């Protein structure tokens, strides 16, 4: 009878887990979500151009300047058209003007500024898991520098693969028209897949060490990707039908639309962080409950 009651309690707890996870995510987002999303929106604008300087410099160092430009174009494809139009020209001008001593200085400033963005995401993740950072700031900064450089190198490798896939697509269009539709659809999913992989690696590397292995990171990355792509597709429609930013903000309308987009993306980061934390903590609670039961039975 006791075993039946224990099994029933375990089954009931498992059935309640989705609701428990949802409550934890909602509480975390409601508590600090808007603060973190606003901070990330501001830092996104602040660090976006420095990050592209790093991409351009790294690509040039490896002799892959074309891949660097493709990486930037692919990023712009994951933003609403109005945001992409606002950012494309200044980014191009920035990359053309960075050379010599100015480029070296720009890279140093870009690394430090972009590391601040990474540290903000790390702080958000640590708060979601209920941890406090214990490493000295210089160690955290060095780790952030490594994450930035590593992500840029992986990005360039990814776009090299995408370039190869584009060649395969062209081959299919010319010689294999029967299978070209499915192949083209797969190639066009490249930016979304690259975004998901980048977010997964970011979540994995910045999650507290105690929860880095053995706990899933893909739900948070998937949730953030969904919010990001949803904002890219729905924000233009919303602004066209329910908002008049040109009247409210005048010449600053484009900047405000960009800030709104990055705010929604920041909120996606918050949701992803709290989703991963809630799943890990709920699973940990179940493990601790089972261990307590085993000790009592023993």
Shape: globular
**Helix amount:** over 70%
Largest sheet: none
Assembly type of the chains comes to single chain
Per DSSP, the total helix count is: 10
Rg to the nearest angstrom?
A: 22 Å
Number of domains: 1
Q: Proportion of β residues?
A: under 5%
Summed over residues and divided by their number, the pLDDT gives a mean of 73
How far apart, in Å, are the first and last alpha carbons?
Answer: 17 Å
Low-confidence stretches: 1-12
What class would the helix/strand composition place it in?
Answer: mainly alpha
Short description:
The protein has helices spanning about 1-60, 65-75, 80-95, 100-130, 135-175, 180-190, 190-205, 220-240, 245-250, 255-295. It is mainly alpha-helical and about 300 residues long.
Report on the structure:
This is Inner membrane protein YihY, formerly thought to be RNase BN. The chain crosses the membrane at residues 40-62, 102-121, 142-165, 185-206, 218-239, 259-283. It holds the Pfam family Virul_fac_BrkB. It is found in: Cell membrane. Its main location: membrane. The protein is globular and about 55 Å long. Helix content is 87%, strand content 0%. The chain starts with a helix and ends with a helix. The chain has 298 residues and is mainly α. The chain has one domain (33-283). It is built from 10 helices and no strands. Helix 1 (2-61) packs antiparallel against helix 10 (253-297) and helix 7 packs across helix 8 (218-242).
